[in-house]
Amino acid sequence: MLAPWLPLLEWWFGSAEAPTEVVKAREKLWFGKNTANDTEARERFGALVEQALAGGLTEWAETPEGWLALILLLDQLPRMIHRDTPQAFAGDQRARTLVQHGLKLGRDQHLNPLERTFIYLVLEHSEDLDVQNQAIACFSGLLPLLPATDRDYFRQSLDYAERHQAIIARFGRFPHRNEILGRPSTAEEIEFLKEPGSRF
To answer: 20 to 30 A from 197, CA-CA: which of 1, 140, 156, 178?
Structure first.
């Protein structure tokens, strides 16, 4: 019997093997707003996302691949299925707990570098500066594992982590989430949000 998380991992990462080919094939699924992708995520995996958000599927975290898939259900897919609503961030706390526990066990070491970026993205999504610093350390640790020809995406990932960290260091939170979460913005945050690249 196939592991229950395999369809999700196959959908997310595709069938290519080289990191550059995977990125080329799947980057439009991973990043940016696309209604068709959001709809497909909801139709194919919405029930699993709701189970994960409700605290279920704990047994998935017992293997590195299942752990990765559960984290995708808590961190990435809610941002698609519940885009621009508070529910988009509903899985963040559980995802962080799972990530921190898994990192202590070395589960990330059993995943390939590209898969690991989606573990470390959970840290990058945190509004805690210490966790942001941890994200930078994790992304930095990936670069030496890769040949020079495969490093572009990973350098970009590190750059994004550093940009996220700078925002948390400055504001203690992500200002672009304020409207969605019903948080009042400060005058400085309002000015910042007028700048290019201030929203993720």
So the answer is: 140
